[in-house]
Records
---
Amino acid sequence: MITIGLCNELNYISKAFKMPISVILGTAPRTKSFIEIHIADEMLRIFYRGQHIWQETLKQPMSNFGVESCSDIAKIIFLIDNNNEAWKNLVYIENLKNGTQ
């Protein structure tokens, strides 16, 4: 599961090194899939099975990233793994210019 702590730590590393950071996490052997986490300029982007499922700022004080975001990301992954198209209704891609979806 994606957690707030994980994303904040990756964001901290990205800012400290002044460069984008990407991490690929393997999921359970049953699905043989990978979660891709990319952070650049305090923007979190998450991809799963080739789908862009989440994009949200981590920049404070504008960030609303939290437990609900992580919960929705977990739901999306579960729905994709179960071939349920309802995952498309949960995808969140924040607009980079004005902070809206």
---
Amino acid sequence: MGCRFESYLRSHLRKSPYRRFFGRIEKIMDNVIIGKVAIIKNEKDYYKIKKETILVAKNTHPDLVIVINKIKGIVTEIDNKLCHAAIVAREFNKPLLMGVFNATKKFKTGEKVLVDFGRKTINKIA
């Protein structure tokens, strides 16, 4: 969903008599992120990240903290609640999708994707 639509909907949520219904929509919107992919294969790739990207990596590295404000969300292949990505995501309140099989091979840097954290899926957008 576009940023304009999200901000429009959120601004009207406060005024609407149907706040309960729209509150559910807002909760669903928070679970979905659309953005461009940045594939990370080594530590040097962190410095190529542009603003509003979705980071896709096998596992993260401590250099992630330098660019954490530029990313929208993190997708990793490794599924471990105590790994570096999980800790950083909790600290900086970033959405995290773990355990995506072959995520670094399925997607290329610059592709537009939709990440649904509620269903734990990631899909290409044409």
---
Amino acid sequence: MLKTILFVPGFLKTQKDVEQIEQICGKLNEFVNPHGYEVLLSECGKQPSTLGIDDYAMMIAGEVDIYSPDAIIAFSMNTVSLRLLWARAKIKIPQILVEGPNAGTPVWKLLLMLTRFPITRQCIRDIRYSSKAMQVIKKNHPKGPVMEIQGKFSQWWLAKKVYEPLPQTEIYSLFPKIGHRALLTDPLVNKRMLDFLERFTVAEA
């Protein structure tokens, strides 16, 4: 029986983004299936993002209850939603956070990045008009083993002088030449992910 990984993508602007995430999920499965894992795409990645950050956090919590995944991969802005759960739920399973903002992210850079989304989207309003998300990022720490991955995009949106890996991060990996979504399917990054999963889960090949 394959071990289950819940894949929670970032905010998606259009249906084309949804289709690209579905393709990425397929490629992830091609890589991990032979090693005893399967990747399930979260409902967060099945339609353009319109809900609030709290709503996505609750959606993730519900999926954790339903599927009982052995690990979670959260990407981009939905790493914020996952971090909301750290204050509410005792999620002790391994978590891989791929290029999401944290306490080292200047707010003005985060706001500039979010301008590519319609301001009417609730997930964006939560970031733009409230300090809640940034406070959550600063205060909440994971309850389970965590791997944090940053890539080329992080060189822009993270302030190098103040950025530090999460206090309880087991493994911190920086890939400064690999693009944002490309991180999810890069062979070297995937190998690092697999090494982390095999360290903290027991898969049946």
---
Amino acid sequence: MRRRIAYMAAAVALCAALIWAMTQMIHHRAPPQAATAAAGASSRPATINLPADGSSLPAEFAILQTHNAFAPGTAQGHGRSGGPEATLIFKGVVQAGADFTAFIENQAAKQVTQAMVGDAVARGRIKSIDLDAIVYEVGGDSRRIEVGQNLNGEVVAPPATQPSPSAPPPDVQAPAGPPDGAGPPNGNPPRSPKRRGGM
């Protein structure tokens, strides 16, 4: 019982800390509408200033264009863009016994290929594979490539997905009950009779 109370107290403390952190983040950053109203500006809608370089993210999120939030490490190899390595993305590794197999997606051909140590890929070869990364060697230069990076060492954003054309529209619903005449007349399941007495 004491252990259960301790777990509940810890959970409540964690929730309180998360709520406090979220309120701090909200209060330290005034929404554009509030800042405009406080400054007494005209009734124009608030706008978000995008960087002049043509990227689609606000300045505070620009780091997401070069770093993958879900893959460890940082993007490497700026300036090596292009070539066949740019379209080959390292997707992951499978270990079978002592052997590692890397999965590399060719985004241009929309195909995933398997590669092992020593296999030729694009203009180089796979020098080593572990569960977190591969080492790709081209022209005597070795590069550590992590999941989500192309063979140039650059983080690649996943392609935008389109909804499946075969999916039914969201407003279509399946029938709620059994076919006509198969269920009770009021739609409620039948109740079992209640027993009375000492049987």
